[in-house]
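Issue: copy button drops trailing tokens. Both records pasted manually instead:
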Amino acid sequence: MSNIGGIIKSIQQIMWQDTGLNGDAQRIEQLGWMLFLKIFSDKDKELELLDDNYTSPIPDHFHWVKEKGNWAGDDEGMTGDELLEFVDRQLFPALRNLDLSTGNQRAVIVREVFEGNNNYMKSGINIRKVLNKLNEIDFNKAKDRHAFGELYETILKDLQSAGKSGEFYTPRAITQFITDVVNPQLGEKILDPACGTGGYLTCAIEHLKKQAKNVEQRKSIEENIAGWEYKPLPYLLVTTNLILHDIEVPNIKFGDALDQPLSNFTEKHRVNVILANPPFGGIVANGNESNFPQTYRTKESADLFLILMIHLLKHGGRAGIVLPDGSLTGDGVKQRVREKLLRDCNLHTIIRLPNSVFQPYATVATNLLFFDKGDSNSSPSGRLGGADSFATKEIWYYEHRLPEGAKAYSKTKPIQAKEFEPIKKWWNNRAESDICWKVNIKTIIERGYDLDIKNPTKAEVEHEYNSLELMEMLDKSFLKSHDLLMTLKGALK
């Protein structure tokens, strides 16, 4: 087996020497399209062996494998300026303009990947070095593929810390826990409408593989896994990720899930399971809020995604998602969104996470919400807020606490899968305690659908400020007062 870790480390060192690459995000994108093409080509080789009628959508001249072209797969192939010119002026233009008239979905994937990504390297010699290192990996060998799959997680985490990319990697412990308790089954349609690099989808794939007993059942996994992603780099990475997990033609839509009217999604688009960490704290683009009913129009992406996910679930469908504290409270549209969630779905569980789960990339407090799509009563009393009209009857809260002795999670000490084992044990045998409690729907209605309910057994901790902290707070207060005064003076002129 190849030393996969060593190979990737060598590639990173080569890329550091190239003047065209500036920052981790560019290096990941550069490695991304190369990995995609290598993995795609290795998969083509496998498909050609299994099916005499299979034809790769990539023309031979641009194919990775040595037997077809010499630009990549041949370690003694072109290099230097010749290779650089080939990549920039032939390879990318050709793959961005692949003929799609045949209806080959693998061709669509290649074209969309290369339309959204770029070659940043300026040295053809360095490109050759990277290609040769990648040639040491055979993705048709199970051991190589498995070893790289483990390492790919690290690459995806690196994307999160790349700074300007704006992507947040959902810790594997969370994606695994949500998948385990939602428990998707073979034959169910599974969707992540904001799939990023594919953490939830790959967890679902591995979950379903354990249930599959034959080739037909394994094939059904590919047919029923779907996602949306609108940013080019994550789209490239999720597509590669799914191919690594034996999905021949990943069903990933390259586009914004919010960019079409909600009414366009009919019964045929509905799914059994949604697993997601929708974007939060962001502002929707292109006036996409107008695609939603007036009652729910907002610029807050998390709220619109919640409405979309409620709409896309079949009756009886299940969802496990991440939402920030800000989505659990607030007036106006936020309140109406929460009311719809409680009325249309049985929101049965909220897991309250420590603030530091996404640190150092985001400090916002987050929650795991689990709900099932149900039938709500549209009677007049229901519209007035009658409890009987709500699919939700009671909500269980579970306060997930930091491990003993820990002050916060961090990049080097993230949340671990074993921390969720107590919650799994509690899941099917629930009882109230100092960390879990339940609230009935009548109380929720009386609170104006405010779901930000603190642990009733936990006393509020009073923070004692030192002198320096008090002075800083006082200084900020004076500055705020001064700004307000200047604003008022300006208004009077």
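Record 2 (pasted manually too):
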Amino acid sequence: MMKCRQITTYCADGEAIVKEQLLPVTRESDEPVHLESGVINLYPEITYQEIEGFGCAITETSAYLLSGMEEAARKDVLQKFFGKDGSRFHFIRTHIDSCDYSLEEYQAVKDPLQDPELLTFSLERDRRYILPVLKEALDISKESGNGEISVLLSPWSPPYQWKTPPARPKNDAGVYGGPGHERKVDYTTPSRNNGGSLKPEFYGSWAKYLVKYIQAYLDEGIPVTMLTMQNESIAATDWDSCVWTAEEQKKFLKEFLYPEMKRAGLAEQVGIYIWDHNKERVLEWALDMIDAETAEMIQGIAFHWYSGDHFEAIQLTHEKFPDKVLMLTECCGLHAPGQGSFWESMGLPKTKTPMHAEADDAGEYAHDIIGNLNAGMNRWIDWNLCVDETGGPRHIPNGFTASCIVESRSARLNMTYYYVKHFSHYILPGARRIGMSRCDQKTEVTAVKNPDGSVAVVALNRGNEDAFYAFRVEGCCVRFGVPAGTISTLVLEQ
């Protein structure tokens, strides 16, 4: 007879309360009635994509904040994210040169026009904060028994000397510089910020630069296994950014980046990921980029969550390219810690309390993870590991929140951390999503079979009413409840 335990996270006055209980398991043949109502069916023998793990980003901002903490406090935070008893994260994303979550703009070669051979290339900036914290996270993961971590590198902008001046943005989202977020931009001078594009005559130079960066990280002992070609490929943001068309990026990949990686012996070691932007156009970009020639060059497709659910787009992309890894590489709540919404940063009235905003963030995270997993996602990476109480520090205004807030050199975990842990701690690398059917849509559900044979089911109830169900799985029945406004993970083991 199998055993079942249920782990549930409640929100009480903004604080997470986690409760665990054993649930009775009965044989269906012993049930006094034929179960028809309130049933969720699980089919462990029907399997879908492999789920390879979860992770977060260590930006310069996060690394700077962690570096300022006492050693014991810093290690405690890293244990909570990368330790075996914590979130069990197996992926880390960080940036090539500066990004919006850097303390200032910087690049590894100050003036590549004066140094076309990149002889002055240096990781001096990365050695201040990012590399020491990365190494500490790697050590903690390994020492705790969580295992090896894989690192993703993503560029936000090439050196500005190689770019065209910014063009006026066409983004329709305020956070990206669209309506309601107007800015003063010099449209005559190349910049790391505000978009602009890489000049074709520097495609080869930029490929060499990226390869040099990867090699430098590998030389530091950082296990880089992934590279996205461009963060937010079509966004002209008021932070570090570069705008591409799919045609341009495809040419860069075929004629410059992939050949350069092959020459350096990196093509088999470091997988290349395309898009790395919002979900609403992920399929179109993949269709434009992947053909018989480029298919072997592209390991996967990366995407962000900022344009809404679009789970169908993820499913369609998975169906069209079943051999490609689908990886969410960024998500965050679009408001600063202590604020109820993004619009408060623009002086508009408060719409909700910070406590309710954090609870809503957690629910949105879980909703998105479930939807993406059920659509075919393989890997999931959160944005900043931590930010301060202003959502920074960073070199541009209007910071955003994270699951860990550093205040006065001490860390506070909010609801999002605990909700994500319901997935990352119990869905083990190598798990397979399994078939299921549910009786209603009151509770969002995803289910997997882990490599150790256990079945993990995550159930999210964002409604105002408690929900009650019975699992049917392999001739057994498990009755359970999902209280209103909670998330549960049920682990079924033989």
